[in-house]
Known about the structure:
This protein is α/β, with parallel strands linked by helices.
Amino acid sequence: MTTKRVLVLMPHDSTADNGISVRGKMICNVFKQKYHVSALFSSAPYATTVWALAIQFVAWMVKLLLLIPQQRADCIYCCADYFGFITSWALSRVLGFPVVFEAHGIMTEENRAKKRPRAVIAICDFVERFVISRADYVVALSTDILEFYRKFNANIELVPVLLDEKAYQKRSSKSLNIKTIGLVGPFDMPANKYYMQFLAEHIDDFDSRIHFKIIGKCADRTINHRVTYTGYISSRDEYVTELASLDALLVPANLSTSGPLNKILEAMACSLPVFVTPVGAYGLDYAEEGKNILIANSFELAACVNQVIFDEAKSSLIGANARIMIEKRYSKTENSARLSQILGALLDES
């Protein structure tokens, strides 16, 4: 029997360390267990304006018109690639393959939160409805995404972020007088730039015994003896080691991505207590404030950290509960099996 060919599309460079690229590479690894998998990544740098981003997307769509037929795919899996989906769908009408769309967030809601012009929001709304309603199947990463998109397509299912919990080291309890809290980028993305602004404005509100480690690419650096930088980390193992060396993770988000943040789930997998603003916790279906995560408004965040971080029993318990949540709800083994079932049904496999 000929092995089926699956093509995975992503709107970001494969070397990027953002959530879409990380998820896309994980999807490829899952499908490789059963299918011949190839991937097409956009190699364009992250655009700084809406219109530059639009030009990139149009160029990506045109490029895919030439590249997709060469892949001879039996199915295309679009990993949060709205515009790649449009080209894939158009070609599928001729070539006859099914197209799956994986929704990492709600595009219209995200752009509305960023206060984009009405014209941009209207375009996003049209594209979003077009993509979701025409996908042969939709995979949603959180319950909010599932419920929002269900009205456009009944063939939709929740399959959470996949984490190989065995690859993450459990944090060992520390009783040092100095605590190290991490902030994870990349910080060239608009949604993450505010983290550094927050730290610069509020660093004196944190207990003086708290130091900060900035993990990931960061050009706009705060100069302070309590702040250190790793720079871009290309090795996944090194990244996990850096995470596990922390005492906690800080996510002072001021914009919702409308989907779960990988950096939070990865820290939880390392048994770290995570301190996050309410919008940063969006999409974390199984997070419970005070049990496996700590949620506070930006003006209360430093006080929350100061109160908990030196309470070793409490911070360790929250970290341990976070790890349990990952093992129960975000296991790669369980969720990757469901993804394979979805794909198998579309490819008419028994």
